[in-house]
Design a protein that fits this description.
Blueprint (H helix, E strand, L loop, with lengths): L12 H6 L30 H12 L21 H12 L11 H17 L13 E5 L2 H20 L6 H12 L2 E6 L5 H8 L3 E5 L11 H13 L3 E8 L26 H10 L4 E5 L24 E5 H4 L7 E5 L3 H7 L9 H4 L19 H35 L5 E8 L2 E6 L12 H4 L2 H23 L1
Parallel strand pairs: 2-3, 2-4, 4-5, 5-6
Antiparallel strand pairs: 1-7, 6-7, 8-9
Amino acid sequence: MAWKSDQLREIQVVDYYQSLDTRRVMSDVEPGYLKPLLPNGPPEEGEKFEDIRKDIESKIMPGLTHWQSPNFMAFFPCNSSYPGMLGELYSAAFTAPAFNWICSPVITELETIVLDWMADLYHLPECYKSASKGGGVIQGSASEAVVVAVIAARDRYLREATKDIKDENERENAFYTKRTNLVALGSVTAHSSTQKAAGICGVRFRAVPAPEEEGFRMTGAALKETVEQCLKDGLEPFYLTATLGISDSPFFLSSSPHTRTTSTCAIDDFPSLLPILSSYPQIWTHVDAAYAGSALILPEYAHLTSTFAHFDSFNTNMHKWLLTNFDASLLYLKNRKPLIDALSITPAYLRNEQSERGLVTDYRDWQVPLGRRFRALKIWFVLRNYGVKGLQAYLRRHIELGEQFCALIEQEKDLFEVVAGPAFALTVLRIKPRPSPPHNIPTEDQRNNNNYNDSDNDHEEQRTNTITKQVYE
């Protein structure tokens, strides 16, 4: 049964958004709930849209966790907007794989333009704009951006290390042999995407300490110690992820330096990293600002980018805090050539006059997939509808609310412990449970035994984590 165009008006997205505050935020279905509700196969004949729409509410909605709900408190914001949704709808209507400029010139050209607009809004150095040797590209997520950065860094390092080998076969062998000793670095509080990217790229990963006494920041001293230890171990550091306020969760589930992975929206000590990086220029430095990078459009945060001209790449997600629906992750490069060298493969069927003459950008060489969607359109819609002032007001209101929330939490010190913040509207906290009575009264020898005390502290730590998790969920 063919759909009619007026049925697009019946999707009731507006009704869904207006009912969000009445819906349970977290889905309470059991694993495998959906299979018994659906038939064993697709229908032989097409069904009426009215029947499909009814199943959205009865079968699909129960399995949704409502990230747009005002009561959603997990992970990070994932705010959408009607302009973003409309841009996505137009993109779906225009659908094209857009792997080359010639596939649909506007898909490439609008992306270049809006990425340059955003570079200015983020107060990025000119070297990250398309008129320079660098430029921006839309990726699916910050994790994809990190993978792409690691690929570019690995390829740049290995090309430089093997450039003096004239024989092609020897150079190829050296290229892959040397790769076994490469190591990517990131702080212990950085997102797990760096470690995952290292695995994907066939290199090792080492974590740089970022202790609580340093505000969970990676410092130059910690980086220097880690790099030197890697070199002593026969490893070759080639890549570093530095972080600017990434966010995963407002609740803190451990104080152990070996298990802490929850982000605190900390900002690594960029100025102290520079002397170390200048001593090791082979290390590609990527700044992961997946969440808090949105705040860089506020003039009061512009100073945070003052060191960025010394780094190689930068990434932030508009789909986290800038009213653009998933996915819209912006990756900027200071020099695009290493990435293009690493990912450019041009069989005959992809060749065209404009690309061959170097007149256009082919973003297929800036990402892992070949095809790509018209994601710049929704960004264009959001920027034009809200304007710079509207987006800035939106962020400032969130930051103000975050500070108010933290002030309220601080008034309940018997119930909560503020671990970090407020920073970029995020306050990291955990529950302070009442002390549990000891199961056994310790002897004097036990009280003097460090192992006994450590065990008792671990028990209280686990109990605190359990209660915090229960409240969180």
